[in-house]
Amino acid sequence: SQLPPLAPPVALLRALETPSAAARMAAAEAAAAAASASTMIATAESPIAPMLSFQAMGFEPGSPSSMRLATTYTNLAGVFKALGRAVESAVCYSHVANLRPNCPETQKDAASAQKDLGRLDEAIVFYRRALGVKPDMPDAYANLVHSLMCVCEWGHRTELFVWLDALLRAQMRHGQMPSVQPFHAMAYPLDSELVKDLSKAYGRHCLLQAHVALVTLATTSAAAAGNSAVMAATPPAPQASAGLYDTMLLSPYRLPHAPRRPLRSGEKLKVAYVSSDFANHPLSHLMGSVFQLHDRSEVEVTAYAISASDGTAWRRRIEGTVENFVDVSSLSPYAVARKISDSGAHICVNLNGYTKGGKNEIFVYRPCAVQMSYMGFPATMGADFIDYLVSDAIVSPWELHGQCYTESLALMPHCYFCNDHRQVHMDISPPLYPKDVDLAEPRARIGLPTNASVIYACSNQLYKYDPDTFACWTRILRRVPGSVLWLLRFPPNGEARILRYAAELGAPPNSIIFTDVAGKTEHVNRSQYADVFLDTPMVNAHTTGCDVLWSGVPIVTLPMRRMASRVCASLCASMGLYEACVAHDLADYEEKAVRLGLDRTYRAALRREILMGRWTQPLFDTRRWVRDFERLMYKAWEIYTTGDTDDERGIKSFAIPPMPIPDVTEDEYRAKWSCDALLQAAVQAGKQPLLNQ
């Protein structure tokens, strides 16, 4: 139904039009960068004049001649975008916005182009202009809020989210697509039920997209065969996931599944992994060895790549070590689903969810009887076409199931979040008993002080920050004399704002230090230069949490309710650190951090426990994780085939019990399971996985 106009109050929009001093400074820096980029374009790659003064050239904004020129730049922007030349496209959209200042759509297009380039301060300016002309622009408002949070612009934060909450509820009440992406909502202070409903809305959208594609396929095939009766009998759009399966997936479009029976003796469980992130991406950094470590006598693994190769060693490594690798990047979602179905796969694992590059329509078509969501999207999918969410008892406790999840839960015995550090980062071995002199030189090399009493750190992206946690950090700095807080320019636009907030909150002068983001290997290596890692409660350190613990650095974390806010607690628990590192409220978080800062002996003992735990605790035992995951998938297939459930789809929540943890020394592990040993074995098998560190 038609959504009635819903705009934030004029007072809020006017307040947003008056940016803070830090925001003005950042905007000026962004404008200078844009001028530089535009000059480069004009002189090197295209005939676009740098930062054109249209009025000086006789083009008055809004005049007929300006409108014609704006049309030309709009077309040029589209051409550049199609060619993948995003910088030039953004410059053209900016020119259109300046030529048509009273057109809200052109302002929004310019904002989106800047946002895609990471020029968040410029995007904020254009989004504000769009809303100034037309306050009732839900997408522009949602993207403005997201851009503001990404650079830690927290002025009017409460009011912004009050209106965003109202907007989302109104959109979903009227059956419209929400303007907030589920991945963004993980970091927002929204009600858990609302966030779950947001995922449900995106699930329905995937359903409709799949329906439209299949209708197109059916009518095209019928037209080619001259069958007008089939063309006229196109079913209506479904209202729920079951609707598509019941009304649309009829022969020949209904995909067959592997027989619903227990596996026979010697028969392998066939597993299909589907992802767009078999590339230089955190998923490949974490799961690179998982695919090759499956027991090939029990499990047959196929990786389906829904994105083209990025040409990196990360992609080549997975291509060369997984049992079966299929590039389906050129195929439609239905064609991919059909290929998976034809393979006879028993279980299909969605490694994307609602993240960039995902093709969830593949799962709408039900290529497998049992379908799981894992790793890529740490939240509920809110969709009937996903049967299980793979998690663990700390990340997804049973008591939060109904509030936060629509799927059945398949719980791993230890932390659900796998990693590849024992295989890839074996060269990073911080000493058990470090002395100050050991770290002075490398700390100085990256801009950290050598005389700090303790270096707290947070290398999470800035969108994960929130004002209450940051205020807590400044209190910690005040209570621990000589301490500093090491943060990343992630993105750079937030640095000036963070420093201003720190001064306003009374943080000691020069106690917050920013450095640039580093490449993966350097990032993991330099994580050991911190003394204590301060986690962000709304969205935790996930991959970064593994990096930090591998480096021997204790973490202080605070689990909330939703999945993304509880992962770091599970990481710590799988290292035997729950009592020491996991807080029960913000006050306890502060006390744990202060104790670690003041008590050097306690901190050193905890560091030794972490470093020894790399070999004695389950978190970094990738082989063990793979065995547990295989047990989990076998259990899911057993439930489906034996009917041990009241659900007609053959699913129910379950947990895998832990196995005894074997004693493995570092030397023993290095000899058999180091990255070099695994790669050598792959090469001997005639493959070329070659990961160049």
Description of the structure:
Helix content is 49%, strand content 8%. By secondary structure, it is of the alpha/beta class. The strands form 2 sheets. Strands 3-2-1-4-5-6-7-13 form an 8-stranded parallel sheet, covered by helices on one side. Strands 10-9-8-11-12 form a 5-stranded parallel sheet. Strand 2, helix 15 and strand 3 form a beta-alpha-beta unit. The radius of gyration is 27 Å and the shape is globular. Mean pLDDT is 87; it is low at 29-51, 240-250 and 687-693.
Largest sheet composition: 8 strands, parallel
Rg result: 27 Å
State the end-to-end CA separation.
54 Å
- Enumerate the spans where pLDDT stays under 50 for 5 or more consecutive residues: 29-51, 240-250, 687-693
Number-wise, the strands total 13
The main sheet orders its strands as: 3-2-1-4-5-6-7-13
Shape, principal axes of CA atoms: globular
Calculate the mean pLDDT score and round it. 87
Q: Estimate the strand proportion.
A: 5-15%
Which structural class should the secondary elements be placed in?
Answer: alpha/beta
The number of helices is: 31
Residues in helices, as a percent range: 40-55%
Structure in a nutshell:
The protein is an alpha/beta fold. It is built from 31 helices and 13 strands.
Secondary structure topology:
Blueprint (H helix, E strand, L loop, with lengths): L9 H7 L4 H25 L18 H19 L3 H14 L4 H13 L3 H14 L4 H13 L6 H17 L8 H4 L6 H34 L2 H5 L8 H7 L21 E7 L6 H6 L2 H4 L5 E7 L7 H9 L2 E4 L5 H10 L4 E4 L10 H4 L5 E4 L14 E5 L8 H4 L3 E5 L8 H4 L11 H10 L8 E5 L8 H13 L3 E6 L6 H10 L7 E4 L4 H7 L5 E3 L8 H8 L4 E2 L10 H7 L4 H4 L4 H13 L1 H17 L5 H21 L11 E2 L10 H8 L1 H10 L9
Parallel strand pairs: 1-2, 1-4, 2-3, 4-5, 5-6, 6-7, 7-13, 8-9, 8-11, 9-10, 11-12
Helix pairs in contact: 2-6, 3-4, 4-5, 5-6, 6-7, 7-8, 8-10, 21-27, 30-31
